[in-house]
Write a structure and sequence with these properties.
mainly alpha, two-stranded antiparallel ribbon, elongated, about 75% helix
């Protein structure tokens, strides 16, 4: 169980770092981007999507590692505990979709709960950043048209 707790803490730290670095880089580079404001919003959405995809992959690999290298649980339901199923389970857990076709057994259930909460916070962070970016660049557009 200690390895699962350590894995949860490390996953939270790494996903937060990934998210911070992508949004921070975006915040630095976005104003200098020579594209229309509408296109900047697309850049924000794709960057956030990329961040979430990396975070989902990280959780999927951690889950796969815990199952196959430490034996701290398994996935039951449709299919086995393959890497593909671990990544799929991670995506549905991160987004709190939860189809229920794959079910974690054993101590890895803690990782699933942690991922759901972490995903909720990171998705909220992306939504907040997107709103701020929209205000920022839509405000620039309206100011340009007033001049």
């Amino acid at each position: 169980m200690l390895i699962v707790i350590f894995s949860c803490v490390m996953a939270i730290a790494l996903t937060t770092l990934i998210h911070f670095e992508i949004l921070s880089g975006l915040n630095t580079r976005l104003p200098a981007l020579k594209v229309p404001s509408r296109s900047k919003l697309l850049v924000v959405i794709f960057a956030a999507f990329t961040a979430h995809a990396l975070e989902i992959a990280l959780y999927g690999f951690v889950l796969f590692g815990l199952i196959h290298f430490t034996g701290t649980g398994s996935l039951s339901g449709a299919g086995s505990s393959s890497l593909e199923n671990c990544l799929y389970f991670s995506a549905e857990t991160f987004s709190s979709l939860g189809f229920g076709d794959l079910i974690p057994n054993g101590p890895i259930r803690l990782l699933a709960g942690t991922e759901a909460l972490n995903g909720l916070l990171l998705i909220g962070w992306s939504a907040s950043y997107t709103y701020i970016a929209m205000e920022r660049f839509w405000g620039v557009r309206s100011q340009d048209s007033e001049s």
